[in-house]
Amino acid sequence: MTDTPHYQLFIDGQWTEGADGQTMSTLNPATGEEWATFACAAPADIDRAVTAARRALSDPAWRDLSQTARGKLLHRLADLIEQHAAGIGRIETTDSGKLLAETASQTAYVGDYYRYYAGLADKIEGAVLPIDKPDMHVFTRREPIGVVVAIVPWNAQMFLTATKLGPALAAGCAVVLKASEVAPAPMLEFARLIEEAGFPPGVVSVLTGDAEACAIPLTRHPGVDRIAFTGGPETARHVVRNSAESFAVTTLELGGKSPILVFEDADLEGAANGLIAGNFGASGQSCVAGSRGLVHRPVFDALVARIEEKMAGVTIGDPLEAQTQIGPLCTAAQIAKIEATLAAATAQGATIRFGGAPLARPGNYMPPTLVECAGPDTATLHVEMFGPVMSLLPFDSEEEAIALANDTPFGLGSGVFTENLARAHRVSARLKAGICWVNTYRAVSPIAPFGGYGQSGYGREAGIEAIQDYTRTKTTWISTSDRPMANPFVMR
């Protein structure tokens, strides 16, 4: 196709092909057809990007820029993101299959993340310490941690980039952003806005490529000071091993099998909507998907009936159409994994109440699927499928619900539906998860930290504390005595 878009890498303020000339194609999940190609980074490109980032840290154009001026650049970037949100959203939808209604609105909303960190840029403060030595003036300052590698997956690219790039740039770091080789087009479009906003060359580079030529040399590079990774646990283990030589500070935001607990006193309409949001929002392609529904037995049947009624009215179709509520999955591999997991669950005695088989149409379409589990060992309760599959299991007591909810190595999101305020506080405090939504689900804000426990990773993104993670503390001691140092062989 002569009109197939081609994306280059953005390194050191320049658009370039990969050093070894390799390219890959990206498919439209709604049709299964190739729609764009992109350059793939090679080890030489990695070295060039990291070297440019290290140089940018010493370049007066970035190093000497005031914190307030850094904030203004981030404000400018936020404005550009909002102006181009519809276009980037359409490209992300074409590339990943996510609904345009979500990609466009989410892209516009991440402008608020950059504004939030723009406002914090000149609030990064040190302190004068009340030291126990009267002839010493001692103070701390927060300095940029250095070169940051930010690795984002395809499923929420603009959002997950903002939670890393926003605080890193506000802190004065330089960033090499690695987009997934699956559906990288919106990240490469975003690089144009970085350029237009006026960030000095090398401050942000955007590249993509496969594991061997791109991700591995990037996470092993000795010039990297910090790695912020979002992805799966298996890949995260490689990232941690790769960072061992450089001792790069690493934070991980990984997957999950998040529980949603519905108690007998819950508003069932709200609970049904919460479960649908947690399982079918983004076609189930969300790291916080509430894919383990735990329901108090007295209301189990009534809630299932309500959910089935809602599922029957869901519109499946072209993700570019406004009326579509569930679009295609990003890759065919997700369909295969769902089918295998559903087969394992039914062999264990689970009942598929709704859906369960891919749609016979072009593209990677899986209908919303409801599984009534035979017991806590049912496969769909433990495998992260990254698709629109809801698994429901009844419980008989609050203690049992909490035990079932915590019976997982993951701990990213959780949900509680109850009208009992005491129970809401009591249960949410005992859930082993980094996020708990009560009587709602899948809500985010730049003000609220985001991260997990256990195999859902460590570290937090968003919120005030995230910006501290992109700085190091330097302590400075100044002697105020007019006498020379005393005995040099005795520590003061």
Architecture overview:
The protein is of the alpha/beta class and 492 residues long. The chain has two domains: 273 residues, Aldehyde Dehydrogenase, Chain A, domain 1 (3-Layer(aba) Sandwich); 180 residues, Aldehyde Dehydrogenase, Chain A, domain 2 (3-Layer(aba) Sandwich). 38% of the residues lie in helices and 20% in strands. The chain is built from 15 helices and 21 strands. It has a seven-stranded mixed beta sheet with strand order 15-16-17-14-13-18-19, sandwiched between helices. The protein is globular. GO terms for molecular function: oxidoreductase activity, acting on the aldehyde or oxo group of donors, NAD or NADP as acceptor. Belongs to the aldehyde dehydrogenase family.
What characteristics describe this protein?
globular; seven-stranded mixed beta sheet; alpha/beta; 492 residues; Aldehyde Dehydrogenase, Chain A, domain 1; six-stranded mixed beta sheet; Ald_DH/histidinol_DH; oxidoreductase activity, acting on the aldehyde or oxo group of donors, NAD or NADP as acceptor; Aldehyde Dehydrogenase, Chain A, domain 2; 20% strand; single chain
Topology, pairings included?
Elements: E1 6-7, E2 9-11, E3 14-16, E4 23-28, E5 33-39, H1 43-58, H2 60-63, H3 67-83, H4 85-96, H5 100-120, E6 127-128, E7 136-144, E8 147-151, H6 157-171, E9 174-179, H7 185-197, E10 204-208, H8 211-220, E11 226-230, H9 233-242, E12 249-253, E13 259-262, H10 268-280, E14 292-296, H11 297-312, H12 332-347, E15 351-354, E16 369-372, E17 389-395, H13 398-405, E18 415-417, H14 421-430, E19 437-438, E20 457-458, H15 464-468, E21 471-479
Parallel strand pairs: 1-5, 8-9, 8-11, 9-10, 11-12, 13-14, 13-18, 14-17, 16-17, 18-19
Antiparallel strand pairs: 2-3, 4-5, 6-7, 7-21, 12-20, 15-16
Helix pairs in contact: 1-8, 3-5, 3-6, 3-7, 4-5, 4-7, 5-6, 8-9, 10-11
